[in-house]
Amino acid sequence: MSHLYFDYAASTPLDPRVKESMDEVALIAGNPSSLHASGRMLREKIDRARRSLAGLLDVDETEIIFTSGATESNVAALDGIVRAVRASHPARRLRIVASAIEHSSVSATLARLQEYGAAVDIVPVAADGRVRPDDVARAITADTVIVCIMWANNVLGAIQPIAEISGAVAEAKMKRGPKDPPLFFVCDAVQAMSTQSVLPRRLGIDALSLSAHKMYGPKGVGALYLKRGTPFAPLITGGGQEAGRRSGTENVAGITGLGRAAEILIVDRAAENERTARLRRALVDGLRAIRGVEVFGKDADSLPGTAFLSGRENGDVLALKLDVKGIAASAGSACDAGNRKKSSALAALPDHRFADRGGVRLSFGRFTRHEEISAVITALREA
Q: What would you report as the CA-atom Rg of the chain, rounded to the nearest whole angstrom?
């Protein structure tokens, strides 16, 4: 049985060029903090990766913090900024504005921060799975310290109006008085990195998280962009690595892979997006021709490599039927894969049919061929 991989949103395949760069580093003995030749060699690998990632994001390399992945980056950004601001504004009850469809690493951190005295204001999404900038603007108060909106949703593929939201945050910043806490825009860009032009400085984003294995790199490594001057209390302390912002001996092979993945995206992303968008159009046209199948969202507002569909059957059942046919896809049912909890993205939609029935997320990209799209359409028609 052939195996077709349509779960890129969960984890992209490792690009062979990335693996090659990692293999070159993996056998080098030494600690990148050591002063001897091996240590210096590893330090240069980290420095190059930092430059490459900074080039992709068009930021200064000193604003890049390497982490174990986007979960750590999200937690560090929210927790680190809130703790730092609280230290200078102890009498204020700080507030955080977030969308109803944030990743669980964000929503769980927000719940914990509430236990520690912060308040959270949740902004709903419309029927297209997108946040309305006016709703964000209305939610911001004088005590709001963070606005946290993800760039693109991991279940629905809906791209958020980041530029307009940034404008609302910038306008709120201008209204701050000298005794008010500062306001920061935090963005989870994990699902956007492989296809979107993610330029945080140009869009007024103060902290942005990403993950290597969502951009054809290795698992277990990611990064946090932290704009220079943003107050930040480190989540992990110890040896003072990453300029004291994230201690622990660096995962040099993983960081090297992330840097190489960034270099490849700089060169190939635009052409890849055009090809992937053509594949998505073919897929969506084929799906919409199947009786009883509904494809979520508008093409213009969705990631080029993601399509969420709902059919007559429960999403779990449909995903299992595809698995039997050798097609790997994620069930976007009332549960998130693996932990059987309700999907916040589906539950947040005004139309509860998607939450009740669930559906299947088909995600693809760099290594997907047109004939694989045809095979998935055929499999769903038979299912």
A: 21
Beta bridge partners of 187: 208
CA trace torsion 329, 335, 338, 339 (10° rounding): 170
**CA 66 to chain CA centroid, nearest Å:** 15
Q: Residue 253: which pLDDT band, with cuts at 50, 70 and 90?
A: very high
Phi, psi of 274 (to 5 degrees): -60, -45
Sole residue written with tokens 């709703």: 135
- DSSP state letter for 238: S
The distance in angstroms from the start CA to the end CA of the chain is: 17
Note the residue count of the chain.
383
CA atoms within 13 Å, Cβ hemisphere of 185: 25
Supply 218's token pair: 């290795």
Q: Please tell me the predicted confidence (pLDDT) of residue 230.
A: 98
DSSP assignments along 136-192, one per residue: HHHH--TTEEEEE--SB-TTT-BBP-HHHHHHHHHHHHHT--TTSPP-EEEEE-TTT
Find out whether 104 and 342 touch, Cβ atoms under 8 Å.
no
Q: Is the pLDDT of residue 267 over 80?
A: yes
Is pLDDT of 338 > 60? no
Q: Above pLDDT 90, what percent of the chain?
A: 86
Helix intervals (H) in 195-240: none
pLDDT tens for each residue of 184-219: 999 999 999 999 999 999 999 999 999 999 999 999
- 258, with CB counted inside 10 A (0-12, 13-18, 19+), is buried
Among residues 233, 299, 189, the alpha carbon closest in space to that of 77 is found at 233
**Active-site annotation holds for 187:** no
- 119-125's contacts with Cβ under 8 Å and 24+ in sequence apart are 119/93, 119/94, 119/95, 119/143, 120/95, 120/96, 121/95, 121/96, 121/97, 122/98, 123/97, 123/98, 123/99, 123/149, 124/99, 124/100, 124/348, 124/350, 125/99, 125/100, 125/101, 125/158, 125/348, 125/349
Catalytic: which of 233, 290, 335, 337? 335
Average confidence (pLDDT) over 92-105: 96
> Is the dihedral angle over the CA atoms 68, 302, 267, 275 positive or is it negative?
positive
> What is the model's pLDDT at position 1?
45
